[in-house]
Design brief:
134 residues, alpha/beta, 3-stranded mixed sheet, globular
Amino acid sequence: MGALTVSPRVVCYVNTCTHFVAGNLCGARNIDIMHENETQMSQMVDQTMCKSFHESNGVTSYLGSMDNTNWVGSALEMTLPGHHLDPSVSCTVASCNYWREGRVCVANAIEVTGVQANECQDTNCKTFEPRKEA
């Protein structure tokens, strides 16, 4: 049997996203961390983004993001003190020190930034650390 992969804890500061939950939590079921420019490997934090960002601008935008909502985590957050909403994390930023094959992030926690973001390119994975050359 393979090893269990645990996603990092997600701390999110993107207050304009439909998945943003008070307390800097993320209510998405899964987030995708990607290179901001698909043709170039990220070399710094500002070249990463949370592709799962969905701008919160009314009821219709919320309805459009419902397919990626962590309903079970949201229910537990409301009923169990100390429970944390943590989406699974898929990462394609292979130039990051925390990236592993299979789109796995091995950081203990990640911070997604982008206060007042209007689109996913306005967000960043603040935890990005350039891969060290061997």
